Structures are given as C-alpha cells and as structure tokens.
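User: Last request for today: this protein with FE2/S2 (inorganic) cluster, please.
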Amino acid sequence: MEENVNRRDFLGMSLAAVAAVGAGATIFAMKKTWDPLPNVVSGGFTTVDISQIEKGELKTFEWRGQPVYVLKKDSGSEKIEGRDFEINGELYTVGLQVCTHLGCIPTYEKDKKEFLCACHGGQFNSSGVNKKGTPPTRPMEIPPFNIDGTKLVFGEEGDIYKQLTNKA
Ligand code: FES
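Assistant: Here's the final one, the structure of the complex with FE2/S2 (inorganic) cluster:
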C-alpha cells in the first residue's frame, strides 16, 4: 500500500515538473513573439536601428499603431527636397505608409522604385510623393522623427524633420 502511495506521489510530482517546464517554455515563446524586435517601443516613441538596412531596401516599423517606413536609397538616387535626408553620406526617406487617398497601405515595389496602392491604383514615387493622374492628391505624411546616430526615433520632432516639413 505504501509503495503504491509513493509511486503515485512520484508520478504526480513528475507530471507537475513536466507541466511547469512546459508552461515556462510556452510563456518564454509567447514573450519572444510579442517583443517588438528589432525596434524598441516605449511611451509613444519607436526607436529603430537603420544601420543594417541595405541600399534600395525598405523596412516597415510600427509607430503608435501605424506603419512607418524607412527607405535607404540606391547610390546615385536623386535627392528629393523636402522628402529625403542624409545620414553618414547615405540618402534616406521616411513616411507614414498610409495612402493619402482613403487610407489603404501601399506596398513598395523595389524594381519600379515606387509605392503602389492596390485599393484604387494610387502611386507614389520612392520618396512618397503622389503621382499625378492617380487618386492620391498629396504625398504620404512624414511622421515626426529624430536622428540619434544610426537610429531613428519616431515620435520626436528633430531638426531634420522640422526642415523637411518647414517647421524649423
Ligand atoms: S486608398 Fe490608395 S488609391 Fe485609394
């Protein structure tokens, strides 16, 4: 009888240990999924490291529940005044990736170097400026941002942002 109880206790403890390890692994996996990598989000600010972005590559991040993009332009790209800026000799452009027609999310076509909006055929050039003859009547918004070394902090109104938006 005592042997049965001990075996039952042992099985119970083993089961509890396996369940605890499983629960820990599940919580760890869930936390990894929820972590906002590679950017850091805090207090309405989103900080992104742009040092790993390749020339011609666009990355999209979330800022205050909205998509913002960072595009590192190809070598030899024309600098569009009021839209593009330089960091360490490289040309970048940023924008709120929301179509200014009716709010859909345009996708960036790397080969064509333009944004296309699938909803009603809106088009924007690589600097986020709307193309004439398509539904959007104004460029995509430039979200407030600041430059901190090789990082961009969305949510802060830095000097470059103020220059681009004529708030300086
Ligand atoms: S919402 Fe983009 S073209 Fe209409």
